[in-house]
Automatic annotation (TrEMBL):
It comes from Aquarana catesbeiana. PANTHER family: APOPTOSIS-ASSOCIATED SPECK-LIKE PROTEIN CONTAINING A CARD (PTHR46985:SF2), NACHT, LRR AND PYD DOMAINS-CONTAINING PROTEIN 1 (PTHR46985). Its main location: cytoplasm. This is CARD domain-containing protein. GO terms for cellular component: cytosol. Keywords: Cytoplasm, Immunity, Inflammatory response, Innate immunity. Residues 77-167 form the CARD domain. CDD domains: CARD_ASC_NALP1. The lineage of its organism: Eukaryota, Metazoa, Chordata, Craniata, Vertebrata. One of its GO terms (biological process) is regulation of apoptotic process. It is found in: Cytoplasm, Cytosol. Pfam families: CARD, FIIND. Signal peptide: none annotated.
Length: 170
């Protein structure tokens, strides 16, 4: 990274907030190197593990924040993991204002077919667009829902911040 700013890796979703030039090297790691299965444990691996290194010639404290892809699991052993887009379904249907840019992202990622995209776009109001989108997401797995979350975050960041109760650096 050649200057200060917020940088996002399009492949992994990792974001780095930096205050100046820096060289960051990161790679996926195996959980098995750090985590032993404990019989009877209620913990489950649900997201990636990354090894992140800052080049030694970089200034100290140049990285002010690291934002990892959105993985969260607060559940009991008997219930399935709940993704942000599932947990906040009602609020997203009611409050998401910029639906078309989200649809554009999903079409570009081939998560929606052209027919599905056009079917959603012609609906009015935005709440009906979101209801139809949710109809198509019923068969999506966690990675596809993560891509939907990232598209919503890019196009409707204030709403996501409000729903998550977090402050995300810009």
């Amino acid at each position: 990274m050649k200057s200060a700013g917020l940088f996002c890796c399009q492949k992994t979703g990792i974001k780095f907030q930096v205050t100046g030039p820096v060289v960051i090297v990161y790679s996926p790691e195996s959980w098995s190197d750090y985590f032993e299965e404990i019989p009877g444990s209620k913990h489950e691996i649900i997201g990636p593990l990354f090894k992140i290194k800052i080049h030694e010639q970089s200034m100290a404290n140049v990285v002010s924040a690291v934002y990892l892809p959105h993985y969260l699991c607060l559940r009991s052993a008997s219930s399935p993991p709940e993704h942000f887009v599932d947990k906040h379904r009602k609020a997203l249907i009611e409050r998401l204002s910029h639906v078309d840019p989200v649809l554009d992202d999903l079409l570009a990622q081939s998560l929606l077919t052209q027919e599905q995209y056009e079917n959603i776009r012609r609906r009015k109001p935005t709440q009906e667009k979101m209801r139809q989108l949710y109809q198509y997401t019923t068969s999506w797995g966690y990675p596809d829902k993560e891509n939907l979350y990232q598209a919503i975050l890019r196009c409707n960041k204030p709403l996501v911040i409000d729903l998550e109760g977090l402050q995300i650096a810009i």
